[in-house]
Amino acid sequence: MEQQVRKSNFDRYANAYDAWFMDNENLLYSEVKLVAHFLKDAGRILSVGCGSGLFEKILADEFDIEIKDGIEPSEGMREIAVSRGLNVVPGTAEETDFGTEVYDTVLFNGTPSYITDLALAVRKARQALKPGGRIVLIDVPKESSYGIMYNLALAVDTWGHELLRGVNPKDPYPIELVRCAHWRTTQEKIDTLRDCGFTDLQFAQTLTRHPLYSNAAVEEPVEGYDRGDYVAICAVK
To answer: CB neighbours (10 Å) of residue 134?
Structure first.
């Protein structure tokens, strides 16, 4: 039921999702640069929860990083991604067959918080990777400024509450998509990766300004996970 609600919301707000990123272009490119950081010489890539394919399109056009294969449960998102040239399999991360030892890299960009059983998805990603392949988990950490702000908005079920006045950006992420997320701490994701047999963890982060100012300029990714509102973890099979 929870997954069905998420799919329905993303179907309904597929165009709003892209529009939000385009209205926050500096933030978008800060995140794109973080994704690109761990995708140099990434080989064949599977994007789990590819959404509308917006990131994949920018990566191909501007960073020479080609992602052809995706998985996406939302029909509305999937249609946009297909129109952008992706081969997209319908389904959730938990339900869909990733294959066995067919990919060099499995990417979860912004999707861990929308996957109910993340450990299952990570195990399937490991099975789909060739020996020495890499998994890349990227998301808003629960402990970050954005994570705390999103959970507060979720608790009061609106961006209009007085507790958020002067705190949230003028163009916040659609509350309908906040409602169906479950943010995890960076440590939770580290533990999941290690429990599933991944090693050699590396970290990079972006959006290091307060959310009010994160769209002020494009940021280059920096190592670590101690201050970023968008954090990437790369690990090896």
So the answer is: 24
Mention every residue, 6+ apart, whose C-beta is less than 8 A from residue 225.
141, 186, 203, 204, 205, 231, 233
Helices (H), 84-185: 118-128, 145-156, 175-178
Quote the tokens at residue 56: 């994949």
Q: Is the pLDDT of residue 2 over 50?
A: no
CA 78, 121, 30, 17 torsion: positive or negative?
Answer: positive
Tokens of 208: 């290091």
For residue 204, give the amino acid letter.
A
Report CA 108 to chain centroid distance, whole Å.
6
In 3D space, the residue among 58, 60, 196 whose CA is nearest the CA of residue 128 turns out to be 196
Non-local (6+) Cβ contacts of 206 within 8 A are 30, 31, 33, 34, 219, 220, 221, 222, 228, 229, 230
79-136 residue pLDDT tens: 999 999 999 999 999 999 999 999 999 999 999 999 999 999 999 999 999 999 999 9
Distance (Å, rounded) from C-alpha 18 to C-alpha 22? 6
Whether the per-residue pLDDT at 172 is higher than 90: the answer is no
Instruction: Give the C-alpha distances (Å, rounded to integers) separating 129 from 99, 124, 234.
Output: 9, 9, 13
pLDDT digits (tens, 9 = 90+) for 140-155: 999 999 999 999 999 9
End-to-end CA distance of the chain: 32
Contact 35, 55 (CB under 8 A): yes
